[in-house]
Amino acid sequence: MESNGEIKARGALIVLEGLDRSGKTSQSARLLSYLNNLGYPVESWRFPDRDTAVGKMISSYLTNQSQLDDHTIHLLFSANRWEKRSLMEAKLKSGISLIVDRYSYSGVAFSSAKGLDIEWCKAPEVGLLAPDLVMYLNIPPKKAAERGGYGGERYEQLEFQKNVAKYYEMLTDPSWKIIDACLPLEDVEKQMKEIVLDCVVCCKKGKPLSHLWLS
Ligand code: NYM
Ligand code: MG
How far is residue 154's CA from residue 50's CA, in Å, rounded to a whole number? Predict the structure, then answer.
């Protein structure tokens, strides 16, 4: 790995956020092969990670197989990020970029939309790795709902998603890249590729890692 004094090359932590059916998963796959083809080491991650023990509890909740108190499920979503934190850091430090489908912002937006206090929702996220880039796939809730319908999981309802969109708006900060997700897939992809490549190149030059504090 190249080093420049104290500053070490590392991978980029790239987060995709947006409502359900905004296109995050399709775009993650495209960005993964784009960076791969350019020779950058990259992995595609997603939260919730349903493969861990905590992730299985989350999945069972989302598929309505179990009921949990709103605070409890919120903390499980957060715990699911915490349990991946050290691996995330190791990957980034080894030069691997991560394209992450949902992160702490989903955690705060979805739980706040249920009526939980937003500051309470942010608290357990403090100390997780801060993304180098957040791309928000912006789509009117009604349009997202029209896209081949929702999958039937908890939260996949138009009225609720409208509320989630409001909380995402509150969380948006000037560093976020807002992508018009109503555009054709290829146009969205083209915009995102440019933004992502800049970020990967910047982190390779040795941008320091930082930690979350959701403002
Ligand atoms: N979700 C996702 C949360 O409520 N909190 C979180 O922290 C995260 C990461 O889970 N409707 C919600 C958003 C989605 C649902 O995500 C499942 P996906 O990307 O559809 O698998
Ligand atoms: Mg979904």
Answer: 15
CA of 39 to the centre of ligand 1 (A): 30
For residue 152, give the DSSP letter. S
16 — phi, psi (to 5°)?
A: -110, 130
Ligand closest to Cα of 54 equals: 1
pTM of the shown model: 0.96
CA of 20 to the centre of ligand 2 (A): 5
Pocket lined around ligand 1, Cβ cut-off 6 Å: 20, 47-48, 62, 77, 101-102, 106-107, 110, 155
> What is the count of structural domains for the chain?
1
For the segment 81-93, what is each residue's pLDDT rounded down to a tens digit?
999 999 999 999 9
In this predicted model, what pLDDT tens digit does every residue of 7-43 receive, in sequence order?
799 999 999 999 999 999 999 999 999 999 999 999 9
**C-alpha torsion sign, points 42, 48, 49, 50:** negative
The CB density around residue 132, as the number of other CB atoms within 10 Å, is 23
Neighbours of 170 (CB within 10 A): 10
Please report whether residue 154 resides in a domain.
yes
Nearest CA to ligand 1 atom 13: 106
Q: Residue 109's domain spans which residues?
A: 13-204
Nearest ligand (C-alpha, residue 149): 2
Mutate to test the pocket of ligand 1, among 106, 137, 159 (most ligand atoms within 8 A of CB): 106
CATH of the domain at 85: 3.40.50.300
